[in-house]
């Protein structure tokens, strides 16, 4: 956790969103502190990805504010939104690589599209990110020629190439075996320590993801039921958080001593 944790990178205030008659978000209030890792958890279909899309400015709420570094994304023009987005990096479930581009060109794409960097600068930056992801030697390969784990690492390299202030991860380890997931988590940890970005992660990988989290937020019934440290989360008295913890981590016990032992065995 960094020492600038008091600054708020993202703030959602009373965000509502419906699709047709389906009310998905019913008044989301959430603060993401700069330099920290906030993990959003919750059952399937609750609206976690919809929250990420609001933070990215991809969809507008029906009501409420989405503030990023103080600017309300719901009230700014396209130009200003695009400028704010240059501070974002994104790693989605499928890594979303272009099959027709080499690993190098996939990672270089945001630099070519969004900056005036020279080819020499692009080369230095891309090779630096590939080295950080243990992908030296893979730059000339195409996505179809590398493994699923490597594709995710290329996606992470691309997400980091613009030196983003905030990186969004939507299920970053989906489809990977335990070994490859651990590798992604290790690289996440290493790059965040080095580049000091704010991370927002949507994940089902509980309790493992708690090891990386500064804050865990549960989305249930259209609202954030609580956003707190993983330790507090596991001991929360909120019935929906308790339910989530029991479902994903096994039963929790009533005495404080037993609760402590569950906490330290699982985290
Ligand atoms: N563009 C859209 N149009 C209509 N419905 C949508 C749209 N986007 C999301 N939804 C609906 O909103 C609900 C929440 O979807 P979302 O993908 O955010 O859930 P989630 O919590 O991320 O689920 P999972 O953990 O399974 O990925 C779902 O019922 C989904 O069908």
UniProtKB/TrEMBL annotation:
Keywords: ATP-binding, Nucleotide-binding, Transport. Residues 10-246 form the ABC transporter domain. It comes from the Bacteria. The keyword tRNA-binding does not apply. InterPro entries: AAA+_ATPase, ABC_transporter-like_ATP-bd, ABC_transporter-like_CS, P-loop_NTPase. GO terms for molecular function: ATP binding. It holds the Pfam family ABC_tran. This is ABC transporter ATP-binding protein. It comes from Desulfuromonas versatilis.
